[in-house]
Design brief:
This protein is mostly helical. The chain contains 7 helices and 3 strands. The relative contact order is 0.11.
């Protein structure tokens, strides 16, 4: 379970979307819904990752929202962590740190023939490689978010396995074909998630 508080969420009761938006508004709507529907079985998802968000709905509306407000004030939300770079010799303002690189003679010869010399060329090659890796990671994260949502909500729907294979194959046409008969709220959200992975796949090919 995803135990940290997400900034934006969606909530489903079975195949029906009952709330989406910022955490506080979703929590309020979910609390109202659960109180009014004894048989409700609600799942709340982080809108970015599709991890399930645990909400403690016990008590009054004021008590439920107070717990969430407290966690938000205390910073109990997923935030990127910026790690400080270690200082070392070189040019501190640029963060340049010398390291030994072992290459074959033909590699050094090729590098030294490039505009700017070996150091500039190596930095360019590393940056290009990092861009490719980041694109792959984003695409994989988008696919996994789609899979989590599909598995939690649509696992028993017809065409689930075929749609899943189409997702990982970046086959938009087949994905849409096998999700076309799904309930409208589920179909809309799985396609939103899938679209992210397709966009990242298209960007990686450019």
């Amino acid at each position: 379970m995803y135990t940290q508080i997400a900034e934006r969420c969606i909530a489903f009761d079975g195949m029906r979307c009952i709330a989406e938006g910022d955490l506080m508004s979703v929590a309020r709507k979910v609390k109202e819904w659960v109180d009014a529907h004894d048989e409700a079985s609600v799942l709340v998802f982080d809108a970015e990752s599709s991890y399930i968000v645990e909400l403690d709905l016990r008590g009054t509306m004021r008590e439920v929202l107070a717990v969430i407000e407290r966690r938000l004030r205390e910073g109990d939300v997923p935030l990127p962590v910026a790690r400080g770079a270690k200082k070392g010799p070189g040019r501190p303002k640029m963060g340049v740190v010398p390291r030994e690189v072992t290459l074959l003679p033909r590699h050094w010869e090729w590098l030294e023939r490039q505009p700017g010399g070996a150091s500039v060329t190596l930095r360019k090659l590393v940056e290009e490689a990092r861009k490719d890796v980041h694109g792959t990671e984003r695409r994989r994260a988008a696919q996994e978010a789609c899979y989590r949502f599909m598995n939690a909500v649509a696992g028993d729907l017809p065409g689930f396995q075929e749609a899943l294979r189409a997702l990982y194959a970046n086959d938009r046409a087949r994905f849409e074909q096998f999700t076309e008969s799904w309930p409208s709220d589920v179909r809309r959200h799985v396609r939103v998630y899938a679209e992210r992975s397709w966009n990242d796949a298209a960007g990686a090919r450019k």
